[in-house]
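Retry 2 of 3 after timeout on previous attempt. Resubmitting structure tokens to design endpoint.
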């Protein structure tokens, strides 16, 4: 039983790592897509911005696949319930993300201003919308999601999908997520871009870092006044993997702060996030984009793990049937499943990190606009 509990906690930690990988790597690409129309005033400048992330965006999608695969395999009940409850939101997310690779392939196929302008709008939508939805999802989960289960384990949805997107706290979290993505994308454009592209990206990234810091503080204050979730008494980590007939869960204002009171070291997580946002912006002001990029990555780490530390062990709490909330304890796969998955994760995650590092090292250096314009095969 102790091994099973350890595997559950390990996979909860790995889920946080993979969600952070999505935010950093995929978010960087989407940040560039969001900024494309603003940092590039001419077709050549926009093609240069696309060429900066062109060699990496499809490889970075691996993190998105890994995150979804981890939820599917390690927390199957969470996967089935969340993907069903957020079905329309997921369709919007997937539709916008499908637009992005199509835009990469088709934008420069036709040498016509209206054609390329239309695809530039596609980059903006397919960059801004997914990152806003990504952050809004965290905001929704922190407030609790409207669902419950029948006697046979069938889930029932109790809230409109519009509320998932449009409630104020979720929108704030979505804008925070988008701000961090724009920051990360702007830092990358500074690293590999030059001239007016790098300078414009610098201005947008600095502003986005400041906005993210303000929203992060505002969110920390706000979350103390929303109803969080807590067990009425200590829960058994080795409980059956079913949301039915579980321990009593209460909704209490400020309950998401309980873990921080019990484990004061957790305060290092929001401190890491906030300090990284502030010092990251200062690094870009000082024209040190590489340092700024890494500080943006640690800002994501601090932000996502702050939410995870506050919620643990809750994964997807139910606002209409709190005792049927999905947690690390009752929504995980079997011990056999988690054990074998860990073996493959230990093998493949370092391989992905090594490949990503190699790819960025090989394709480092500045991207020159005149070379991009002269190459008819470039983006």
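Retry 2 succeeded. Sequence:
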């Amino acid at each position: 039983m102790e091994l099973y509990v350890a595997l559950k906690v390990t996979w909860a930690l790995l889920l946080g790592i993979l969600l952070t990988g999505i935010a950093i790597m995929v978010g960087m690409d989407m940040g560039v897509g969001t900024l494309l129309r603003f940092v590039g005033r001419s077709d050549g400048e926009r093609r240069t911005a696309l060429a900066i992330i062109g060699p990496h965006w499809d490889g970075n999608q691996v993190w998105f696949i890994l995150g979804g695969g981890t939820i599917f395999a390690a927390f199957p009940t969470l996967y089935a319930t969340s993907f069903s409850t957020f079905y329309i939101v997921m369709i919007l997310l997937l539709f916008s993300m499908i637009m992005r690779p199509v835009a990469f392939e088709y934008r420069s196929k036709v040498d016509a201003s209206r054609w390329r302008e239309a695809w530039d709008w596609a980059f903006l939508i397919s960059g801004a919308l997914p990152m806003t939805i990504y952050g809004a999802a965290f905001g929704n989960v922190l407030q609790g999601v409207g669902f419950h289960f029948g006697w046979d384990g069938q889930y029932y949805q109790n809230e409109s999908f519009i509320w998932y997107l449009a409630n104020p706290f979720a929108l704030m979290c979505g804008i925070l997520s988008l701000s961090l993505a724009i920051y990360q994308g702007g830092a990358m454009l500074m690293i590999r871009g030059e001239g007016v592209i790098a300078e414009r990206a610098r201005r947008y990234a600095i502003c986005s870092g400041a906005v993210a810091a303000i929203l992060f503080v505002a969110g920390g204050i706000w979350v103390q006044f929303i109803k969080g979730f807590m067990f009425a008494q200590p829960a058994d980590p080795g409980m059956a993997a079913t949301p039915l007939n579980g321990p009593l869960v209460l909704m209490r204002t400020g309950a998401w702060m309980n873990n921080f009171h019990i484990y004061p070291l957790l305060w290092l997580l929001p401190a890491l996030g906030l300090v990284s946002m502030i010092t990251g912006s200062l690094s870009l002001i000082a024209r040190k984009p590489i340092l700024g990029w890494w500080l943006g990555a640690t800002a994501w780490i601090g932000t996502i793990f702050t939410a995870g530390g506050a919620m643990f062990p809750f994964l997807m709490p139910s606002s209409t049937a709190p005792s049927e909330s999905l947690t690390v304890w009752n929504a995980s796969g079997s011990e056999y499943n988690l054990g074998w998955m860990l073996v493959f994760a230990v093998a493949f995650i370092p391989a992905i990190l090594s490949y990503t590092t190699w790819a960025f090292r090989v394709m480092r250096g500045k991207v020159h606009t005149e070379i991009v314009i002269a190459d008819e095969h470039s983006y």
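Attempt log closed. The chain has one domain: 2-374.
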